[in-house]
Amino acid sequence: MEQTLSIIKPDAVKKGVIGKIIDRFESNGLxxxxxxxxxxxxxxxxxxxxxxxxxxxxxxxVEFMTSGPVVIMVLEGEGAVLKNRDLMGAxxxxxxxxxxxxxxxxxxIDANAVHGSDSLENAGIEIKFFFDKSEVL
Length: 137
Ligand code: ATP
Ligand code: MG
What we know:
The protein has helices spanning 10-15, 18-27, 42-48, 58-65, 80-88, 101-105, 120-130; strands at 2-8, 31-38, 70-77, 114-116. By secondary structure, the protein is of the alpha+beta class. The longest helix is centred in the C-terminal third of the chain and has 11 residues, at 120-130. The model has no long low-confidence stretch (mean pLDDT 98).
């Protein structure tokens, strides 16, 4: 059983598609092991995407991720990391396969609806970043 971190980003929360996105996870064998709605601070968003700090899009990314509340979840299931990335689709929604979350709910490479951990190692780090062990059930 794997766990991975998912974030429903501010664009999708504003659009009112939290339920539709969660349905994609639950319908595909991913259980919600933890969930909360939060407003990220600039520091939190910057630290979370710290690997991208030197990239040209970093400032826009932090601005976007703090532009409204997000829903943060721990998803659990067999091969959860890859399964979630498959359900999400490509980073740029214009390149995302039909039927993926980003193809269906995202507008642009900046406002791309969801985040998902990209490896099992990063999933562990990202889950710890947002949740205490006692909150993952
Ligand atoms: P996420 O980490 O949010 O799940 P990802 O793993 O598909 O997305 P990353 O390479 O980790 O993609 O980039 C993190 C975020 O930074 C992307 O979701 C996107 O919003 C933004 N981003 C990445 N590459 C670019 C780019 N070339 N131009 C603009 N924004 C970008
Ligand atoms: Mg990433």
